[in-house]
Write a structure and sequence with these properties.
4-stranded antiparallel β-sheet; 1 helix; 5-stranded antiparallel β-sheet; single chain
Length: 231
């Protein structure tokens, strides 16, 4: 998997299944190349509490687990890079806490902040469709990533449509629990230059659909994480 140009990042909160919805959150992080992820966690409640942060690699294995306490209405920041023994990984992280939290993600590339996302709790049931825009042209390229935040296998299909509505590529996938996968429009699905249009992911559970947009010089200009809308 080529990670030299595409930095897999961004964070968008996705709640765990209903039984654990109040105390388990899932997120996306990137600590590759020149990309950094800062996680801001705040205690929404009027009582002190503790939260745990678990960092997974792309194979779904826990590589870091840490806990911190928070006073009422207090906030703290975790720099994912600092938690790791070495850089070069990306994928899923989880925040677990018995208290209500607010979470935000700050992403930087080559020392400059390129994205800030406040969390959104999303509840999904059954088959999910997630859509976004992509470009594979000399002036703009797109990196596409899928991250499974669940403790079960998620299966689905990634379809790339061209501007006329034709199917440019269709790739079935099956993601093991907590596993992340990178899809290159140039190498993994065989698209040539001058393609652009719609990305559709149909799966049996919601995923992190991560899109990074790059200029012709390879510089990152924007990043977006698409999650399914609440039912």
């Amino acid at each position: 998997m080529n990670r030299n140009v595409l930095c897999w990042l961004l964070f968008f909160l996705l709640a765990a299944p209903a039984a654990a919805l109040a105390d388990t959150y899932s997120a996306y992080y990137d600590a590759t190349a020149q990309t950094s992820t800062a996680l801001v966690v705040s205690n929404v409640g009027s009582e002190p509490g503790v939260f745990s942060c678990l960092v997974y690699d792309t194979d779904g294995a826990v590589i870091v687990e840490t806990s911190q306490s928070l006073a009422a209405h207090a906030s703290t920041v975790l720099f994912v890079d600092d938690l790791l023994a070495e850089r070069g990984t990306w994928g899923l992280l989880r925040i677990e806490s018995p208290i209500e939290l607010a979470v935000a993600l700050w992403i930087s590339a080559s020392g400059a902040w390129v994205a800030v996302e406040n969390v959104e709790v999303v509840r999904t049931v059954g088959t999910v469709a997630q859509v976004a825009d992509y470009a594979s042209t000399p002036n703009r390229t797109t990196g596409i990533g899928l991250v499974n935040p669940h403790d079960r296998v998620v299966a689905g299909t990634l379809v790339l449509y061209d501007a006329e509505g034709g199917v440019a590529a269709s790739t079935p996938f099956q993601l093991e629990p907590r596993v992340a996968r990178y899809v290159s429009t140039a190498t993994d699905v065989g698209l040539k230059e001058e393609f652009w249009g719609l990305v559709v992911v149909d799966a049996d559970a919601s995923l992190f659909l991560v899109l990074e947009y790059y200029n012709a010089d390879g510089s990152l200009v924007d990043v977006d994480v698409v999650t399914a809308a609440s039912p």
